[in-house]
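Chapter summary example.
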Amino acid sequence: MPRKGRGGKRRKVCQFCVDKIDHADYKDIGRLNKFLTERGKILPRRISGNCARHQRQVTVAIKRARQIALMPYTTE
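The structure predicted for these 76 residues follows.
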């Protein structure tokens, strides 16, 4: 439990590590949508809470999904 008056921000944990998923799959659109803003930008690691390894995999997976039109580049 965070202490009073000390910031109290908890460190986010990587959802891929928690679920024991070793690789981010570009076909898993439901999971990848959690790492996009409503404008279609990829969330940075400090906001998403991913570890460095999985953040790189998520970025590549989103770019691949966009390439084959599974995910949008932007929302308009």
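To summarize the output: The helical segments are 15-18, 29-32, 45-48, 52-67.
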